[in-house]
Structures are given as C-alpha cells and as structure tokens.
Design goal:
This protein has about 525 residues and is of the alpha/beta class. It has four domains: about 160 residues, no CATH class; about 100 residues, Rossmann fold; about 55 residues; about 170 residues, P-loop containing nucleotide triphosphate hydrolases (Rossmann fold, 3-Layer(aba) Sandwich), CATH 3.40.50. It is about 40% helix and about 20% strand. The protein has 18 helices and 17 strands. Strands 1, 2, 3, 4, 5, 6 and 7 form a seven-stranded mixed beta sheet that branches. A six-stranded mixed beta sheet has the order 13-14-12-15-16-17, with helices on both faces. It has a four-stranded parallel beta sheet with strand order 9-8-10-11, with helices on both faces. Helix 5 runs parallel beside helix 8, helix 8 runs antiparallel to helix 9 and helix 9 packs antiparallel against helix 12. The longest helix is centred in the middle third of the chain and has 32 residues. The relative contact order is 0.06. Keywords: Cytoplasm, GTP-binding, Magnesium, Metal-binding, Nucleotide-binding.
Length: about 525
C-alpha cells in the first residue's frame, strides 16, 4: 500500500504521459496486486487521485464539479493499467466522454508484469465529423510518439475558436434537443421541429439535435450508453448547458442523466410547464401553472444532492425550484388542495361572467386552434385590439375576450383561448380545464388552422380530438384556413379539396376576412334561433 501511495509523489510530465521508469512501476505494481491501477493526472503532471480497481476495471468516483482548467474539459487525464493485455475498453472511452477527461491512456502489461503496449484516446473538436473521439492503435510501450499537452491545447483552442464565432450578446442557455422513440425517424424529425419552436419560445437557443430509433426504452437512461456518449460529445462541442428530451422522462431517468452528464435535463412536459409559467398573467392562469408544476414535481421529489438544480431548475432557474423539491408530499398535497379551491372560486367567477353574457343575449364566438396558428392575430384584426400576438408557441395562455359590433348591429363576444398542441402533458390537461371552460359557453367555435404549415392536417386532427374530449361536438365549428396568402395556386387547390368547408383567410389582412365574417354572422343567427 505504501508503494501505491507513493505514486502521488511522482510527476507524470513527459509528453507521452509517463516515463519508462513510471510505466515499469505501474505495470509491476498492478501485476503484483492483480488489480488495475489508475491515476487522474492534472495538466502539471500531478496525480489528483489514485484509483485501485479489480482485475478488469477501475471505478472513478464522482468528481468535483469545479474543473482543473479554464476550458471545456476537466483538465484531468486518466492513466491506468490493464493486466490482461487488453486494449482500451468501452468503459474507458465512456469515462473519458462523460467525465470530460483530457485523454485516457492504457499501459497494458504482459504475464510477467512488464509493460507490453500503450494505447491512447482523446476527444475530437467540433466539425470533426461523425467520430466523437480518436482512439489510436496500440504501440510498443517505449515507442509512444505523442505530445499529450500539445494535443489538449489544440483541442481547447478549437473550442475557443468555436466560442469566438458565437454571438456573445446572446445570453440564452444553449440546448441540444433529443428524441428517443420507436417512431420512424421522419416522425421524430417533425416532432423535434416543434420541440425546437417550443424551446425558442421558452428562451433557449438550440445548438443541435440527436435522434435515436429504439426497439426498447432503456429504463435507466432512456437511451443506450453508446448513443448517450455521442450526445455528451455533441453537448460538449456546442457548450450546451441543457439537454432537452422530446419524450417524458421518469424521475429516475432524469436523476441518472443529470448526474452522468452534469447538465440540466428537461423533458417536453417540463418545457411546456416552463413556458406556461413565463406567460400566465391572470390569477387563474398562475394558479393553473402552479398546480401543474406541483403535480409534475411530486413524483420526482428527491433528496438534496448535486444533481438537484440540474434536475428541476427549469430554464433560467424558473419553476418550482429547489425549495419546493425539499417540501414533503403531504405539504404539496395540502398546497394542491388549497390551489384547487382557489381555482374553483375563479372558475365560478368566470361562470358568473358567462351567465351575464348569456342573459344579455350576446352570442359568444371562441377561437380555437393549434398553437401559433394565428388566433390572436385574427382577434386583433377583427376587433382592433392589442392582444399579444407573437410568432411563438403559446403566446396566449389566458382567455382573452373582446366585444365586437358589426355594421348590421350584430354584437358578439370573441374569445381567444390557449393554443392546443399534440402530446399535451397530462398535468396540463386537467389543470388548464378552467382555461378551456370558455369553450363551453361558445355558440360558435372558430377553428383557426395554419394552412402553410407542413403538418396542418395533423394539427387540425389534434384540435378536433381535444374538442371531442371536451364533448363540444354539438357546437358549430367554422374552419378558418389561415395564412392563405402564403400558398401558391396548386397548394390552394389541394387544401380546398381537402377541406371544402374551410374559409380561406389571412388574419393580418382585414379585407381578406369578409367571407369569414359573413359565415360567422350566418352561424350566429342559426345558433340564436336554436336557443329561442
């Protein structure tokens, strides 16, 4: 043991990572104890940690978060022995990737405890192709021809060059979006397109994407270690702080991924919750957001550890946060009960408002549609109001109602609602029921569809499915074929044939809405007649 401890007094500062004498010492020691020996060495050649494993592997404990260097790598390299003459193992390479080590060097010994060969591996810089790392072929232990310090300096220089090309005024967190699913790659690509839009809405800057089609989900990490290593290198090269999954992750998967990658892990559900948290403005909206966040958080409560902030911090630290994670389940349940009661009060108040409208005989037209389809823009154009209408998903989260009077003296209430979306998190479906209660008072549903979107058909189906779930099929629905001006003649003909009852319109142009207004007034007359 004393001989092993004395390894800490050595300086491993040779360009190849060790001297001939040091290679002999490591090989002999490892042979005598029948175990692998490893050293984590800093860039000055000083051993930071001595590791003793078993005959076939070594275990590297959790390392401090603080890096030994100013660059993206940790500033440590692994030098260790193999006593059975085997090459670098997959475990060696995974350690290098996930711990962001400068390099991994294996000194393999022969059956007599003498050095036999040496093998190196190191990460590759951005734009280096598909390979995330370079694994050099084995060479005789005393003929290693490599300059590790120069290699690492070149790699860090490449990272710095990539940083200089990045917009330094953009302070958004950088993210990699990931899809792991049994669905075909083309389906995953389209879903990631939407996830990227959601990420941009949430304030993230997407720097890359990764797709894996799987037969079976890995219960621990959702994806296999090999693909996970590819993801980690992609995140390292992009200097991404966030990894965003399109699929909902279990509590265990989130913890494992956060611990392994040392990055903030988000899934689609958490991202949508975060967007709602940013945009909710009314009391009802804020109550609904908090309820949904707590329901999402409760099964994911974990003990306080280093992965905590990466696990549940949200984007820019929003969301329930660390203090709420430390709250026990009973207190969360009590809080949910309290929020539910408050939400019922708000819902009753909305009900009174709807009753007053009904008694006043003012018909209600509710705008529905897939998120970012142009509902708020249409409301603004029809009413000359200033409702927020951004080219972002979920720009509208609280119901917005405006009264409008037509030249025929017909008055009606136009109500804008939260945009629908596929794979809406179950926490939101229930919590935001009050938001969609406005639809129950509607005489007409104005279903706004973005016909310029490549997946308009799937979006229309998603909206109609939610309408069915709310048992609103009996309410008259007018399909508005918005952004008609962005289609060419061939595309218009195709859309017209597919949706013959749809009304072409461009929400930003008032003169394009005359046909739509006529249809609205006709349907309102029919609805009023039915209710008499």
């Amino acid at each position: 043991m004393k001989r092993i401890n004395r390894l800490a007094d050595r300086r491993y500062s040779e360009p190849c990572g060790f001297s001939n004498e040091q290679a002999r010492e490591l090989a002999l020691l490892s042979h005598e104890i029948g175990r692998q020996i490893g050293l984590l060495v800093d860039r000055q050649g000083r051993p930071e940690m001595i590791l003793v494993g078993d005959p076939s592997s070594i275990y590297i404990p959790e390392l401090p978060r603080a890096r030994q260097s100013e660059g993206r790598l940790r500033g440590l390299r692994l030098l260790h022995t193999h006593i059975s003459g085997e090459n670098l193992s997959e475990e060696d390479l995974m350690d290098m990737v996930f711990l962001r080590l400068d390099s991994v060097t294996v000194v393999a010994s022969n059956p007599h405890g003498e050095p036999d060969f040496v093998q190196y591996a190191y990460l590759l810089p951005p734009e280096s192709g598909a390979k995330p790392y370079e694994q050099l072929p084995p060479v005789r232990w005393d003929r290693a021809d490599i300059d590790l310090p120069a290699q690492i300096k070149a790699l860090e220089d490449e990272f710095r060059r990539a940083d200089r090309t990045r917009d330094t005024t953009d302070k958004r967190e950088r993210a990699i979006v990931v899809s792991v699913s049994q669905a075909p790659k083309s389906v995953q690509e389209r879903s990631l397109d939407e996830l990227e839009d959601l990420a941009e809405t949430a304030g993230l800057k997407v720097e890359g994407r990764l797709i894996q089609r799987i037969r079976k989900v890995n219960p621990k990490f959702i994806m296999g270690k090999g693909k996970l290593a590819e993801l980690e290198v992609l995140a390292l090269q992009a200097d991404a702080e966030v990894i965003l999954f399109d699929q909902e992750l279990s509590a265990g998967q989130m913890r494992n991924l956060a611990k392994l990658t040392e990055r903030k892990i988000l899934d689609r559900t958490q991202l949508i919750l975060d967007i709602f948290a940013q945009h909710a403005t009314t009391k009802a909206g804020k109550l609904q957001v908090e309820m949904a966040q707590l329901k999402y958080t409760m099964p994911r409560l974990v003990g306080k550890n280093r992965a905590l902030s990466r696990l549940m911090g949200g984007i820019g630290g929003r969301g329930p946060g660390e203090t709420k994670l430390e709250v026990d389940r009973r207190r969360i349940k009590d809080k949910l009960t309290k929020l539910g009661n408050e939400l019922k009060k708000v819902s009753r108040q909305r009900g009174f408002t709807r009753d007053r409208r009904a008694r006043a005989g003012v018909p209600v037209v509710s705008l529905v549609g897939y998120t970012n389809a142009g509902k708020s823009t249409l409301l603004n154009t029809l009413t000359n109001s200033g409702v927020l209408a951004e080219n972002k998903l979920f720009a509208t989260l609280d119901p917005t109602s405006r009264r409008i009077r037509f030249p025929s003296d017909q008055e009606l209430i136009l109500t804008d609602t939260v945009g629908f979306i596929r794979q809406l998190p179950k926490e939101l479906k229930e919590a935001f029921r009050a938001t969609l209660e406005e639809l129950e008072a509607a005489d007409v549903l104005l279903h706004v569809a973005d016909v310029s979107h490549p997946e308009v058909g799937e979006q229309i189906e998603a909206v109609q499915k939610i309408i069915e779930d709310m048992e609103l099929q009996g309410v008259t629905e007018i399909l508005v074929l918005n952004k008609w001006d962005q289609l060419n003649e061939e595309e218009r003909e195709l859309v017209s044939n597919t949706y013959p009852h749809g009304i072409p319109a461009s929400a930003i142009t008032r003169r394009s809405l005359s046909s739509l207004v006529e249809v609205i007034l006709e349907e309102i007359d029919k609805a009023v007649t039915r209710h008499r």
